[in-house]
């Protein structure tokens, strides 16, 4: 059964990419919806297997590392696989109704969508540094193509900027991989961690870790390396923006977190951990302030992503040279923050797309009177914003509460300023959008009402983000299968 599950997650998306490439938009939409159903079922089945039997390592073709490619299937991996299935399914369904089937370039959305999904699954399950690089490149190239979809000059400029940042990040990561291979003769992450455990000196490979973390931070759009993100996320189609913000930037951060948790103890340093945390804190304030100043709705949401990404990098200082209990709290906070942000930001971008379609403009002040026409989309936007603020009982609140506890347990009280200040800024830019939408406008005949199904999809995601805080314990119990020991099983 495991063989079929692995094949379903890694090879089925590639097959579907080819099938949809040969079809037009309308036929590709039907094929995609069938593939989405298969992917969701396979993801649920793998999650059930890990919950029942625990995590495991799976060698492709029966070849063990370092000769073969080894997959790592544990609690954290299957959580991300299931999250990807949920967000990608919602974005794919929304895109099927939202995108214009008569526009020639939109037919390429489906193959790029499936290549992106395949790359994400490779990253979640990978345990080999080079194959993680392959997954990253598949994600980056697919994402660049999705940003450029449509061919407008602004979209092409944003896509090229994104491509340059992605290539630079990939180069830094690949140089680090080469250094690790030269030192250990293996690219297995578990094998390198084991070798470092026997010889904690690292023999200069600390520089390799710094290089890889720099490249991954660039791909994740950590401040001040974030300038490529707002144009790309802001100009892309709303279903594309949802995928980029909810999943794509999480792929590079996921690898950075894996590297730190496996190799940070022998190769990292207090200065590196605090630097990454400091940049994360600056991202929270800078991204929130810029979101408050933006005149275009999608730019508000895009800069919000810059801010929310910053919280994730608190993982590094809160897990460095600390107690096991405090480190576990930080790891749990990171997981809940990723899930909550993915659900909330996908809901927010999809809702923003509905609002823009209705008023015919991307400007925030053009939303005057829209509350009468699209209450569901506006409500979904607000629910997602509540999670970003960190109000109970949302998943965002649970994540920030765990970060707060880890900060106090480690004596790093200064991160509380980031948690509180970021929440206030999130409230400010969400309420700004609401204030604009509730301004009365006597000329409301120009509003277009999208299909109701376009409003239901982001509503479901927003409700899931809202209820994540109530369901945090089952999620964290599955994640504990990851951190029980270094092997994942």
TrEMBL record:
The NADH:quinone oxidoreductase/Mrp antiporter transmembrane domain, residue ranges: 127-422
Organismal lineage: Bacteria, Pseudomonadati, Pseudomonadota, Gammaproteobacteria, Pseudomonadales
Q: Does the keyword Lipoprotein apply?
A: no
Which stretches are transmembrane? 6-23, 30-50, 76-99, 108-126, 132-150, 162-184, 204-222, 242-261, 267-288, 300-318, 338-361, 373-393, 413-434, 454-472
Annotated organism of origin: Marinobacter pelagius
Which family is annotated? Belongs to the CPA3 antiporters (TC 2.A.63) subunit D family.
Name of the protein in question: Formate hydrogenlyase subunit 3/Multisubunit Na+/H+ antiporter, MnhD subunit
> A GO molecular-function term, please?
lyase activity
Per the record, a Pfam family? Proton_antipo_M
Give the signal peptide range: none
Per UniProt, the keywords (alphabetical) are: Cell membrane, Lyase, Membrane, Transmembrane, Transmembrane helix
| Keyword check for Transmembrane | yes
Q: What is its main location?
A: membrane
| Bilayer disposition of the protein | Multi-pass membrane protein
Location comes to: Cell membrane; Membrane
Q: Which cellular component appears as one GO term in the record?
A: plasma membrane
- Write down the InterPro entries for this protein, in alphabetical order: CPA3_Na-H_Antiporter_D, ND/Mrp_TM
């Amino acid at each position: 059964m495991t063989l079929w599950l692995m094949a379903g997650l890694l090879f089925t998306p590639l097959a579907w990419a080819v099938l949809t490439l040969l079809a037009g938009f309308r036929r590709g939409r039907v094929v995609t919806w069938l593939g989405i159903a298969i992917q969701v079922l396979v993801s649920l089945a793998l999650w059930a297997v890990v919950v029942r039997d625990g995590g495991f390592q799976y060698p492709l073709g029966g070849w063990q590392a370092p000769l073969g490619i080894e997959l790592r299937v544990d609690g954290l991996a299957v959580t991300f696989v299931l999250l990807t299935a949920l967000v990608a399914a919602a974005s794919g369904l929304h895109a099927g109704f939202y995108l214009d089937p008569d526009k020639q370039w939109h037919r390429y959305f489906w193959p790029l969508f499936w290549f992106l999904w395949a790359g994400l699954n490779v990253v979640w399950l990978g345990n080999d540094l080079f194959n993680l690089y392959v997954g990253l490149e598949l994600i980056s190239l697919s994402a660049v193509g999705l940003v450029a979809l449509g061919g407008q000059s602004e979209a092409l400029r944003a896509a090229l900027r994104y491509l340059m940042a992605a290539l630079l990040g990939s180069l830094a990561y690949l140089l680090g991989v080469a250094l690790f291979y030269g030192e250990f003769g293996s690219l297995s992450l578990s094998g390198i961690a084991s070798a470092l455990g026997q010889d904690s000196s690292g023999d200069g490979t600390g520089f390799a870790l710094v290089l890889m973390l720099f490249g991954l931070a660039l791909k994740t759009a950590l401040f001040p390396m974030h300038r490529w993100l707002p144009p790309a996320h802001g100009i892309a189609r709303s279903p594309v923006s949802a995928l980029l913000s909810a999943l794509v930037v999480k792929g590079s951060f996921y690898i950075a977190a894996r590297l730190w948790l496996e190799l940070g103890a022998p190769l990292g340093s207090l200065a590196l951990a605090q630097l990454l945390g400091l940049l994360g804190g600056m991202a929270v304030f800078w991204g929130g302030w810029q979101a408050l100043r933006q005149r275009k709705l999608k730019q508000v949401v895009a800069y919000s992503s810059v801010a929310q990404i910053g919280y994730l990098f608190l993982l590094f200082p809160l897990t460095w040279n600390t107690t096991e209990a405090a480190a576990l709290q930080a790891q749990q906070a990171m997981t809940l923050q990723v899930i909550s942000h993915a659900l909330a930001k996908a809901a927010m971008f999809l809702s923003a797309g509905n609002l823009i379609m209705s008023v015919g403009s991307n400007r925030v002040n053009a939303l005057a009177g829209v509350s009468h026409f699209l209450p569901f989309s506006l409500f979904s936007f607000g629910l997602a914003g509540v999670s970003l603020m960190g109000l109970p009982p949302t998943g965002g609140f649970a994540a920030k509460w765990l970060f707060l506890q880890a900060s106090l347990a480690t004596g790093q009280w200064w991160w509380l300023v980031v948690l509180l200040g970021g929440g206030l800024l999130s409230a400010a830019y969400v309420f700004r959008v609401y204030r604009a939408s509730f301004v009365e406008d006597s000329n409301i005949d120009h509003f277009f009402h999208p299909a109701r199904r376009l409003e239901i999809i982001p509503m479901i995601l927003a409700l899931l983000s809202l209820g994540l805080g109530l369901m945090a314990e089952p999620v964290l119990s599955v994640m504990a299968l990851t951190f029980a020991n270094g092997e994942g099983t």
